[in-house]
Amino acid sequence: MKFKLLIDGHLVDGVASLDVINPADGKVFAKCARANSEQLEEAISAARRSQPAWARLNHGERRAYIERLCDAIDSRHEEFARLLTREQGKPLQQARAEISGGMRRFRYYAALDCPAVVLRENETEQVIQYQSPLGILAAITPWNFPFSLLVSKIAPGLAAGNTIVAKPAPTTPLTTLLLGEIAAKILPPGVFNVIVDANDLGQQLTSHPDIAKISFTGSTETGRKVMQSAASTLKRLTLELGGNDAAIVLDDADVRDVARKVFDAAMLNAGQVCLAAKRVYVPTKMLDRFCDEVVALARDTVVGDGLDEATQMGPMQNRQQFEKVLQLIETAKTQGTVIAGGYALDRPGYFIAPTIVRALDDEADLVKSEQFGPVMPILSYDSLEDVIDRANATPFGLGATVWTSDYRRGVEVAKRLEVGTAWVNRHLDLAPDVPFGGAKQSGIGQENGIEGFKSVMQLKVLNVAKSGTP
Ligand code: ADP
């Protein structure tokens, strides 16, 4: 078998195999190793054995290892991108961008140092604050951005001196396994391990007493389960969960320009983005014009196999999500008016036409829940106060966008939104040095930036009275 688990530096077959489906045709295109409970246990043991030596390396030594890994991945960039498109479905251009973005993060963390801070140093005392690794991290990733979300977890984790057990989503394991295959030749055995399951090993991993921290990206529902499992040993947690991001178009916006940008913010990766624009609020007087623009964009979007360079939007990643989004569309037809799309494409694979729905009220399912698909509800508003309240009336708080010709007005609105990231006139700008995380039930903690680095380390204080000097 080509795609193997990585346990203790060895590429190994699983006790079973897993079929990997190309969502562009619904057919199995690869098989990979699937682990059982004993293999997960072996991976955790290997991570435990290798951790002290990895942690003892200095920053420069770990950096050298990680940069060699980055060079090796970069030399296979196109292979990664094509594999990502085949397992995930996204257009090649987006797959290439995901790999490049992930690699920027990898190199950012390889170079980042977190030096000790001397709080006091005088004749009688020395107090130093510094960061030490936590131990073993579990990196659990979803199927929408299998590569970049993995890197957001393992890059700071490895750079800080932790060892890793990674577990990709069962429908998109291959880019993670390819990374494991490359790491097997470069990193010391046990420092990075990859386990693939069929959604059956998550609990064992997240409740294991040897795991110090769980970095999880996925649904809010599964995030709650992870938090429960972690409670038994008070594990550290970073949870990046669902969102229901509002896009608020202000009355001074250039409708044509903003319609394009909001459409892209909603439809990237066929809407399978935790911080996609999921509810669009437009002033009543601009509503018809805005709808006309996005309907034209929806009709012009080239939907197809991501491997075709002309494709702008790929399929839903898996059958379950495909059916869920179609069901939401059926309900939306009874609660509002579909003005573009509204159907699955008549071809193999999990394709849904870009769909625009208007005339919904705030209680409609499509407005209240996270659609995670290419479906954009457009709502109208008359007062800014009212739209801010409506945008905030959700248990989610991942991101939001404000669109305006006067960015200063946009900033005033953005400040009042209860979210982890409020964008003004742009979206999805996720640079490695900018922390990203959710407010409210969209998550706990941050990834990226210094905050993402500190989240995989233990703050330690060395507090010394110099009275013991001989
Ligand atoms: P979805 O519901 O869209 O498939 P999930 O949030 O369930 O997304 O999946 C995200 C990741 O969490 C995947 O890697 C999945 O295998 C993993 N996972 C699923 N159930 C659990 C669990 N109980 N504990 C830990 N991880 C889990």
Could you describe the 3D structure shown?
- There is one protein chain.
- With 470 residues, the protein is α/β, with parallel strands linked by helices.
- It folds into 2 domains: 258 residues, Aldehyde Dehydrogenase, Chain A, domain 1 (3-Layer(aba) Sandwich); 179 residues, Aldehyde Dehydrogenase, Chain A, domain 2, CATH 3.40.309.10.
- The chain contains 15 helices and 20 strands.
- The protein has a 7-stranded mixed beta sheet, sandwiched between helices.
- Helix 3 packs across helix 4 and helix 9 packs across helix 10.
- It is globular, with a radius of gyration of 23 Å.
- It binds adenosine-5'-diphosphate (ADP).
- Adenosine-5'-diphosphate binds next to helix 7 and helix 8.
Q: Helix/strand/pairing class, anyone?
A: alpha/beta
Strand content: 15-25%
CATH class of the largest domain: Alpha Beta
Mean pLDDT over all positions:
97
CATH superfamily of the largest domain: Aldehyde Dehydrogenase, Chain A, domain 1
Bound molecules: adenosine-5'-diphosphate
Feature tags:
470 residues; alpha/beta; 2 domains; 7-stranded mixed beta sheet; single chain; Aldehyde Dehydrogenase, Chain A, domain 2; binds adenosine-5'-diphosphate; Aldehyde Dehydrogenase, Chain A, domain 1; 6-stranded mixed beta sheet
Concise account of the structure shown:
It is built from 15 helices and 20 strands. The protein folds into 2 domains: 5-241 and 442-462, Aldehyde Dehydrogenase, Chain A, domain 1, CATH 3.40.605.10; 246-424, 3-Layer(aba) Sandwich (Aldehyde Dehydrogenase, Chain A, domain 2), CATH 3.40.309.
